[in-house]
Design a protein that fits this description.
Strand order of the largest sheet: 2-1-5-6-12-7-10-13
Number of helices: 7
Structural class: alpha+beta
Helix content: 25-40%
Distance between the termini: 30 Å
Strand content: 25-35%
Shape: elongated
Radius of gyration: 22 Å
Number of strands: 13
Length: 265
């Protein structure tokens, strides 16, 4: 699908012992060094490709259809894992995840969330292995070519290839939340209100009267029409209309013999 000579620094990284690694020797002449990538794969590392849809039209068609269906941005990464190896250690993502198995097979483990986990994490709630830990195993299963797995954001998971190398695509669906809307409204309010844009002097913080600052914010957030406009604006901008050759999209499903799985199956 993608040749090493087409990969720049922003297009890939290597996952070794559960963590993403980037080193200078991974590049040669500004593009991926094929010898280093092959050596890493032979040693059991996983190759992660970012934004696969930009280089593969049929993947782009699927990505656009997902975006159009959910009315929000979607990005696509690819993972190539050698036989009998894992990529990341147990972790959660801050976005909804659809995993499409392309080649080989992979054993997946989905966990109950641990007590340190934040339900429905947002973008700023980055996973930290020193802080967050999974709960008991909820389910284990194997994905075969054409299987589609949905993992809700915030759910711990990990995967390991079987006796054959594995290639899968991850479609990250970046849904809009009420936090998204309110942050957008706050940005709009700050455009019109110079008081909100003023610096806060730390030595006077305890003596500040917040009434005049909070009043316009509260009034705007209570404006149902304004909130509705912000929601509609997000969905309008997030939708990515389906483009390209529809026959490619149809062939993608037919060739995959797609079977749908779920994290709780």
């Amino acid at each position: 699908m993608v040749m090493a000579g087409q990969l720049t620094r922003r297009d890939f990284d290597i996952i070794t012992e559960g963590s993403a690694v980037r080193t200078d020797n991974q590049l040669k002449g500004g593009v991926a060094n094929p010898e280093v990538l092959i050596r890493a794969l032979n040693e059991g590392s996983t190759l992660r490709l970012f934004n696969v849809h930009l280089k593969a039209p049929v993947v782009d068609a699927f990505k656009r259809e997902l975006s159009r269906t959910f009315r929000c941005p979607v990005t696509v990464n690819g993972y190539l894992t050698p036989q009998g190896r894992k990529g990341f250690n147990p972790h959660y993502d801050q976005h909804e995840v659809f995993v499409l198995q392309m080649e080989g097979s992979k054993n997946w483990t989905v966990f109950e969330n641990g007590g340190s986990s934040l339900e429905l994490p947002l973008k700023q709630h980055t996973f930290e292995k020193e802080v967050h830990s999974p709960g008991p195993i909820r389910d284990q299963f194997t994905l075969e070519p054409g299987d589609l797995l949905y993992i809700p954001r915030g759910h711990f998971h990990c995967a390991e290839s079987t006796e054959e190398a594995s290639v899968h695509l991850t479609f990250a669906v970046h849904v809009y939340t009420w936090a998204t809307i309110f942050l957008e409204l706050l940005a709009q309010i700050s455009d019109d209100n110079i008081e909100i844009r003023k610096a806060i002097r730390s030595e006077h913080a305890s003596a500040l009267d917040f009434t005049d600052i909070l009043a316009p914010i509260i009034n705007r957030l209570k404006d149902a029409d304004l909130v509705r406009e912000s929601i509609e604006s997000c969905f309008k901008e997030g939708a990515d209309p389906l483009q390209g050759n529809p026959r490619d999209f149809t062939a993608f499903f037919e060739s995959s013999a797609m079977r749908v799985g779920a994290s709780g199956r």
